[in-house]
Amino acid sequence: MKYLDEFRDPEVALRLIEEIKELATRRWVLMEVCGGQTHSIIRNGIDQLLPDAVEMVHGPGCPVCVTPLETIDKALAIAARDDVIFCSFGDMLRVPGSDEDLFQVKGGGGDIRVVYSPLDAVAIAKDNPDKEVVFFGIGFETTAPANAMAVYQASQDGLENFSMLVSHVLVPPAMCAILDSPHNRVQAFLAAGHVCSVMGYEEYYAICQKYKTPIVVTGFEPLDLLQGIKAAVIQLEDGKAEVHNAYQRAVRPEGNLPAREMIADVFAVTDRTWRGIGMIPVSGWKLSDRYRELDASVRFSVEGIQSKESELCHAGEVLQGTLKPDECPAFGKECTPRTPLGALMVSSEGACAAYFHSGRFARAVAL
């Protein structure tokens, strides 16, 4: 733990907070893009320790949360088939579809298996040649290299019974969509360090230039986040809009080039629907033409499934930073971890789950 403890020093944290208080001369709204950063901010009370002049809003950086409802329904339809072994990471099993979730399908007899790597699903396909094995490939750029490797390996091994249901999304287009919104409040971003460790941060220069918005690449520990917030406030106070890497121990400008090459081979950019937000152009990946025969959506003819979001769920507003979770009328009432209306309440990176498990009910009770 000693290598983590140095990024959790409470004395250094309090000193950084005091420095931020001295720097902020007017109100600034910052968005952390990543759900992991959101949980760290809420769990450590960083948003409550910051001065009133600095407000943190929570972005669409939870891959489980932004997986569109129709994709969940596609997964449920595939997983219910007798000839399918459906493989997924555990955090997808409680995400509600239109009528049920993967846990309920499993309880009804579906062969649904939690795996810890997409390559585990490839191994299951090798061991079960009489079954169709489907891996639920979701996530941001962070998980894309491993998912791409699984597709590549299955193709190399000639596995005709392996396929992937792909719902990958990309961070930069989502940031642009937020900034383009007429309801946008965000004045600076904390960019997700793990995404940038894969893709680098060269794409962010154009966003800074176009929108005059600072972007600071940060990690996930309390001191990482506070240093990132401080760097963003300095830029805002000075009227600057630059990309700043505050996570140099893990991130290089160009990212991980071998990982990027694997992604470019297996995936192709596509328009993508985000749960609660809607369609964002060129904001996702699909399997490239070379690997199209491994696309589970095509193989099982579920491309036409359409779904409708709950009218009670305000997840889209939370994901875009215009609403805090405890400002949603359904928070802690109709929507709880046991009765979720959306993925934000059950995902390990969901903002609503972070608020619920940290006891942030003050505004919800008042509504």
The main β sheet shows up as: 6 strands, mixed
- Biggest sheet, spatial arrangement of strands: 4-3-5-6-11-10
Terminal-residue CA separation? 42 Å
Total helix count? 18
Number of strands: 11
Q: If you consult CATH, what is the topology of the domain at 67-170 and 255-299?
A: Rossmann fold
Would you tell me the structural class of the helices and strands? Answer: alpha/beta
As a percent range, the share of helical residues equals 40-55%
* Estimated radius of gyration: 21 Å
CATH-derived architecture of the domain at 67-170 and 255-299: 3-Layer(aba) Sandwich
Name of the level-1 CATH class of the domain at 67-170 and 255-299: Alpha Beta
- Would you list the SSEs in sequence order as H and E? HHEHHEHHEHEHEHEHEHHEHEHEEHHHH
Spell out the CATH superfamily of the domain at 67-170 and 255-299. HypD, alpha/beta domain 2
Mean pLDDT: 92
Beta-strand residue fraction: 15-25%
Overall geometry comes to: globular
Q: Give the assembly state of these chains.
A: single chain
Outline the low-pLDDT stretches: none
Overview of this protein structure:
This protein has 367 residues and is an alpha/beta fold. The protein has helices at 2-5, 10-23, 35-43, 46-49, 63-66, 69-79, 102-107, 118-127, 144-156, 171-180, 193-199, 204-211, 222-238, 257-266, 296-299, 315-319, 351-357, 362-366; strands at residues 28-34, 54-61, 84-88, 111-114, 132-139, 162-169, 188-192, 215-218, 243-245, 267-274, 278-287. The relative contact order is 0.16. Helix 9 crosses helix 14 (257-266). The model has no long low-confidence stretch (mean pLDDT 92). Helix content is 40%, strand content 19%. The chain is globular and about 65 Å long. The chain has a domain at 67-170 and 255-299: HypD, alpha/beta domain 2 (Rossmann fold, 3-Layer(aba) Sandwich), CATH 3.40.50.11740.
